[in-house]
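Contributing new records

If you add data, match the layout below exactly. Sequence lines come first and carry their own label; structure lines follow with theirs. Keep one chain per record. Anything else will be rejected by the validation script.
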Amino acid sequence: MEKLRLQLFADGGTVVNTTGGTVDAYTGAAVASTAMSPTMKTYYDTELLENSRPQLVFSQLGKKQPLPARHGKTVEWRKFNTFDKALTPLQEAVIPTGKQFGMTAATVEVQQFGDYTSISDRLDLHAVDPVILGATEEMGAAAGATADTLVRNALLTGTNVMYAPNGSTPVTSRANLTAACKLTPDVVHKAVTWLKKCKAPKFDGKWYVAVIHPSVAYDLTSSAEWVEAHKYAGVTEIFNGEIGQLRGCRFIETTEAPILSGGSGGAKVYATLFFGKNAFGVVDPEGMGLELIVKDKETVGGPLNQFSTVGYKFEAATKILYQERMVRVESGSTFSGEDAVN
């Protein structure tokens, strides 16, 4: 006779965190509170947001596009086509051909992301530390990292790429990059010059911005030309994570800057992303921004109120709007033999 597993009617997922570690919510096999008041909900929401914001490095550089509720899942950015210069003299009494005016559209569909963890009633009761608050803080950090990585991965599809040279020897592919192919002020200048030649607009009309990994910043900031952010912070707004500027470009440092495989001899390759203003768009969906979801044991804990859950979800989408306003510089680093792909 088959036994009826009442736990199947609970909603704790496949694992529940307990006083003895994590267990399968259905079998109890090892895997490696009371109802929440509105005040606690607000408190947990604040914790989630405060812990997610520091992670949002890439999205702060994008053009925000609202998506009102009940307006579908697809967002469209539109731009007018430009006109070529009219360098041919007009002929007397002859009507010129004229130019055709048009518009280009870029679209992207939002997708939903999220995660959660389950906490047993005994763990919540007997743990020395506030478990649900701790789970909320960690979920906030994970939510921010997830959202930022989604933006980063979309930007890695950019078509413009430069390779840092090996000293004075040019490099033409990722496969030839070594630890000696470092990001230097001259390479930065080339990337900035490329953006200028493409007429990429600057942030605040003054700066281009790059996102850089600490391992690459280690090499670059040794330059005598490097200006640390605190030396000009009093006269201009600082981006989240900004560490300094060089050759007309301000740098934002994050461990989430891409580390790629494929370098020479297994050397890790670092992608430093340079941007002009509004190079890409980030969708901001109404009603589906980052949301904390805490469900107490009386709601989801099964027949015996045995666990609570803490989780988050959000909708997001990123679209490159102007390929010519961004360039990826791939390089090695002093740490190319140590770091892991992220």
